[in-house]
Amino acid sequence: xxxxxxxxxxxxxxxxxxxxxxxxxxxxxxxxxxxxxxxxxxxxxxxxxxxxxxxxxxxxxxxxxxxxxxxxxxxxxxxxxxxxxxxxxxxxxxxxxxxxxxxxxxxxxxxxxxxxxxxxxxxxxxxxxxxxxxxxxxxxxxxxxxxxxxxxxxxxxxxxxxxxxxxxxxxxxxxxxxxxxxxxxxxxxxxxxxxxxxxxxxxxxxxxxxxxxxxxxxxxxxxxxxxxxxxxxxxxxxxxxxxxxxxxxxxxxxxxxxxxxxxxxxxxxxxxxxxxxxxxxxxxxxxxxxxxxxxxxxxxxxxxxxxxxxxxxxxxxxxxxxxxxxxxxxxxxxxxxxxxxxxxxxxxxxxxxxxxxxxxxxxxxxxxxxxxxxxxxxxxxxxxxxxxxxxxxxxxxxxxx
Length: 401
Prior knowledge:
Largest sheet: none
Mean pLDDT: 84
CATH superfamily of the largest domain: MFS general substrate transporter like domains
Shape: globular
CATH topology of the largest domain: Growth Hormone, Chain: A
Helix content: over 70%
CATH architecture of the largest domain: Up-down Bundle
Order of helices and strands: HHHHHHHHHHHHHHHHHH
Number of helices: 18
Structural class: mainly alpha
Distance between the termini: 25 Å
């Protein structure tokens, strides 16, 4: 348990740093002479590189010692953060952000692999849900911790202090993390890990159905909650800025609660496909209600928590992917599935912005509620795609033997 908890701290660390720039935009613009477009690229540079390196990161997790790989990732992340803290221009800062994306690319797969080796197969869904929940906690800690550090040390000093934490975390990994227990719960096939069976992965329709399910379920978090819910809620509830922020945070809190609880339900009932299917249906209903109903702000807060809770079913994808692919491909397959979930941000955020821009030529101020509702139909469309995918996925590959 301690092994997985320490490894999961790196995911918490990653999520906290991933969105850190949103709290230091004025300081970065002044210090590095940046415009808003450059700030946008600087913020998204982490995620683009992270997605690109998912498959290489998964391959590294398949082939190398997990403890050493995680320790190296911690040190590389610390180096990237320190580089960012001393960056003197836009190019240096952008390269440092890219290095952060490379450093964190194996993190989620390493944690999932450790969970698979340290816990019985039956409990993989709930334990992987705990990993995802811990990562989301990092996203929730960012708005609290980073502004406090900036008030004390400025943006450069706060980044430097967070870099030191990465070094400390690498020491903890080296001291306490082990690849597998001496009496291995789920034995590792050393021979299988040496060979990749790419055709079996590429031609595995069940694997791709799981990937698109994860994409469709998670898109409401990284496209709606991640960007467009704030202007939508301000239009829907004018003059309620504080409560709007609470509603947004409830989506993430709901996901952090839902991921482990849905995993627990899956483990106890051994009906993973049923949990995934039901969660997707309820998620679609809650999303449509949030977009098109005339509910009060209190009702919207409850709805946002429900959206996050049932969107937490995305983490069940990892367990199903492990069942659908050869043992030699588990790491790269989970990394690919993780990359699909993250695609919603870079794909759907600009698409929704494009749809909104076509409905108004004068910026956010002239957008009406119905403009947002029309643009958000693409999110509902992605969720319907997820529903179709889980419906087509064969029952027998989703249930435990």
